[in-house]
Amino acid sequence: MTDQAAIEQAARRVFSGPIAFLKSAPGLDYLPAADLPEIAFAGRSNVGKSTLLNALTNRKGLARTSNTPGRTQELNFFDVGDPPAFRLVDMPGYGFAKAPPQVAKRWRFLVNDFLRGRANLKRTLVLIDARRGIGDGDRELMDMLDEAAVNYGLVLTKADKLKKSDLENVQQRVAEEARKRPAAHPGLLTTSAEKGMGVEQLRRAVIEAIG
Ligand SMILES: Nc1nc2c(ncn2[C@@H]2O[C@H](COP(=O)(O)OP(=O)(O)OP(=O)(O)O)[C@@H](O)[C@H]2O)c(=O)[nH]1
Ligand SMILES: [Mg+2]
After folding, report:
1. Lowest mean pLDDT among 11-20, 96-105, 124-133, 158-167
2. Which domains does the chain carry?
3. CB within 8 A of 168, min separation 6: which ones?
4. Ion ligand 2, residue ranges at CB < 5 A
5. Is the CA virtual torsion 173, 177, 180, 186 positive or negative?
6. Among residues of the chain, what percentage have pLDDT more than 90?
7. Mean pLDDT of all residues in the chain?
């Protein structure tokens, strides 16, 4: 079997098997042991982190989603496999205008400290809303990841909301910015959780990142 076929087969098997919520960590003191590889979902509030995690695992209500930004307020850990082989981490978003400044600051420290300090973190997925492109908050996050040499991959979300030419435009701009960033993985993934677009590719990327 080719490597590619083996990865596809592993991706299908892993994501159709058992996946379970492990725990919610409101602070770094509450993290699970760093004993398994992890993949984290980061990005602006409302970008679709929790929704994409659900699409990836093909389970609708696994991570809580909402129309209102600020839904996810803690680091939520999900075990993939039984016994678990790795974990997915759904995180609070940034750039949520209505969050009280103290709360927004707490989330930012939680997310940044986790991403910078978690030795077993294999890949951070930085989600970018295809309608908005890369914003200031996204740049701040990527600057931090670049400085800390934490490797990440960019993922466009909500591709279903754009017409083809606009989507191609944003893909080009985002890919170009990614190429300039030292810790960014080459290759931009374009997804729509709504339409299931890019979900297979994301599964393969996760399996590859886990190694
Ligand atoms: N059309 C469309 N809507 C989406 C897609 N992904 C997410 N959404 C919607 O975007 C909204 C926010 O999704 P969430 O997954 O809760 O976003 P989040 O990034 O987890 O947000 P926070 O937890 O607040 O940081 C929800 O109303 C989703 O239904 C998509 O691919 N297409
Ligand atoms: Mg969320």
Report:
1. 96-105
2. 3-210 (3.40.50.300)
3. none
4. 49-50, 71-72
5. negative
6. 84
7. 95
pLDDT at position 1 over 80 = no
Q: Is the CB of 93 under 6 A from ligand 1?
A: yes
Question: CA 97, 114, 71, 69 torsion: positive or negative?
Answer: positive
Instruction: Determine contact, residues 187/200, Cβ cutoff 8 Å.
Output: no
- Ligand 2 centre to CA of 137 (Å) is 16
> Is 71 or 20 the better-scoring residue by pLDDT?
20
The CA-based dihedral angle spanning residues 66, 69, 75, 78, taken in that order and rounded to the nearest 10 degrees? 20
Q: What are the DSSP calls for 74-119, one per residue?
A: SEEEEEETTTT-EEEEE---B--TTS-HHHHHHHHHHHHHHHHH-T
Largest CA distance in the chain: 53
Q: Cα–Cα distance between 72 and 82 in angstroms, integer? A: 25
In this structure, is the dihedral angle defined by the CA atoms of residues 14, 16, 18 and 23, taken in order, positive or negative?
Answer: positive
Residue 132 CA to residue 118 CA, distance in Å, equals: 29
